[in-house]
Amino acid sequence: MRAEMRAAMRPEMMRATKFLLALAPAIVMAQGLDPAAILKPLSDSWPTYSGDYSGMRYSRLTQINQSNVKNLTLAWTSRMTGGAPAAGGFGGRVGGGAPTIVGGEGTGEANGPINIRASILQVNGTLYFSTPDNAWAVDARDGHTLWHYFWKTKGGTHIGNRGLGMWHENLYMETPDDYLVCLDAKTGKEKWHVEIANFNLQYFSTMAPIVVGNHILVGTGDDLDEPGFLQSRDPETGALQWKWYSVPMKKGDPGMETWGDVDTASHGGGNVWIPGSYDPENHLYIFGTGNPSPAYTNPPGRNGDNLYTCAIVALNVDTGKLVWYYQTSPHDTHDSDSTETPILVDGQFNGKPRKMVLHASRNGYYFTLDRLTGERLVTSKFSDTVNWAKGLDEKGRPVRDPAKDSTVAGSLVSPNNGGATNWQPPAFSPDTGLFYVPTNDAYAMYYLTETDPRGAMGLGGKDEAGITSMGAYLTAIDYKTGKTVWRHKYPGFGGNIGNGLLTTAGKLLFGGDLSGNLVAYDPANGKILWHTRLGNVSNAPETYMLDGHQYLLVAAGDTMYAFTLY
Amino acid sequence: MVERGKALYGVNCSFCHGSDARGGEGGPNLLRAQVVLDDQNGELILPIVQNGRPDRGMPPINLTTAQVADVAAFVHSFRVGGYDISRMTPPTILVGNAKAGEAYFKSACASCHSVTGDLKGIGAKYADPKTLQNTMLLPGGGRGGRGGGGGGPVVTVSVTPAAGAKVDGRLVRIDDFIVTLALADGTQRTFRRDGDVPKVELHDPLAKHRELLGKYTDNDIHNLTAYLVTVK
After folding, report:
1. How many CB pairs under 8 A join A and B?
2. Helix axes B2-12, B65-76, angle to 10 degrees
3. Is there a single domain that holds both residue B66 and residue B168?
4. Average pLDDT, rounded, for chain B
5. Which tens digit of pLDDT belongs to each residue from B89-108?
6. With a CB-CB cutoff of 8 Å, which residues 158-217 of chain B face chain A?
């Protein structure tokens, strides 16, 4: 496919592109990324995980729109190879001869196939992105690699990497073995790396670092019983600025009254593995925390709500101090991380302007919260099958039904472990007022295998047997009521969660479906407007503007596809 | 070393930290403790054992450096992670009431099944009650929430093009844009889909099984399982 594209390119265009490329790094990239630029609403570039701080993934670009989306054409594709040069056979790819820079503290043996789940930054005509242990700079005009960085890992969970953060000419990458690596965006050369979590404690790091002014916000994951935290690092040195634990670490810490004992609380999970959103006006970094640990069992030490696990949390970004929280799964027993990206929206609520947070949780519930106080405005269930809760309490929080915990004889529970939704980024369109999220109505049997309340650690203690999905959907929710306004069922029986989403002022909603198609929908009603079959779309589509042309960019496994209108 | 350590641990530590080191009378779980995870050969555990933390319930214990190294080797011999297959020894899942299960079967299942007909010997066919239970919930359903795959009955599909005769076959693949059928002669046929054209009808033999998932209580499931295991 790529070879055909190249052949179809007119020779003078190729020469012109090459000429520009020779100049581009020196002239254009010297500007880097001023962190103030991230404050602007999403438009020509894509400078941070969600495009801008709101988390909306709503682009103001309109060149590609409802009337012409059917004319989208493939501009280029680019297939990435990871690993060290000798092992990976690097070079000879598009624009061959790009250097691979090797760093790392380990032997680098845990290198798997390339699957791009990351958000891809687009700054000054260059794309920057990552997979576990690999980072690339790629020309946004034709997809050729400018440099590749490979981190030799000590090992650990290599489940995914959500992308890079950028500050002036620095790029930041988290590694599965818990380092924050700073790269020179121009050359891919490493400037420094610092340890961000203790690898011995089975932490692994996947989050895309979020740059807010002079803060690099960094989260980690852990599937053993270790405390979750978010930390802020200095952009120039990597030095720690502050660290916020999502569970009480000692007697007297806030939230300790929601645990049975300090030992359990301080091993209680609540990991921060997906980037949050940022409210610049109020200096609030708003994000979700993961499940309490042990995830599926109820040792006496977990008696209580287990703050601040499974919660939406607002921290003052300058101090790292908690401003408010809202727990979406008090005393969770199903690994229902609340890490799914919260979306910050200014809009009407009950006839008055209101600053809000919109969040669809893995547990199957949707929430609209007040952004300044965390007050709950709306709770709704966006799944037909979800049955783990008995109802809502006075704060609108779902109340766990203990009968739906894992039991020896088996409990039929929805959602399954994958969740009613998961990390796949949702989107929001101010034009429709709708919140878009891929959802799945799936059942699983949960069997308790560890009957000793001391016994289970991490995700252990249960055996899950997937039963079936009753339907997987692209779901559009009205934030004012929490009601599903429309939803599109992915045909067939292979229920799973669809891919992350993008919406635009061109009145378009893009996302990968469950069958390997990249699809454009009408955000007002879900009508299909355009599609192309790429196979296994693996990240959320993005869009950017270059040389007067709007591009649509998406990854499918190890390959990136860019579309445009000519 | 591990054996020596096990003996020393059993005498000196297990009362408080549990024989499996996951916590006991007053002492915390050692497997997930940072000092233990950071420790290599007892060097970090040694000062804690020798000095104790008397104000917090951990007494000083008089062991030599070599002995603590043995204890450490024993503690490090446990697998530290969520999934530990050696601990997956649950008691039987059969807690239901077979009589109640039989009554449920008669009202909800007998329209399609008979325990002397198609389900004869079902309790022997799936000797593991968990497998039987999962099969009963969704026959042939794979793990991981993907129904319709694996060994389940075949989903068939009828496609009626705008012009032309209806085509029937086994469903191979369907999305919003394509439907592929395997025809009786073993060949495949693919139709382009454009909204409602052509007309596509899926025939899912397990539709009723799916529908029942929203109706069962866990008790119904346990009772049905208890009944079906007796159908030998």
Report:
1. 182
2. 100
3. no
4. 91
5. 777 899 999 999 999 999 99
6. 171, 173-178, 204, 210, 213-214, 216
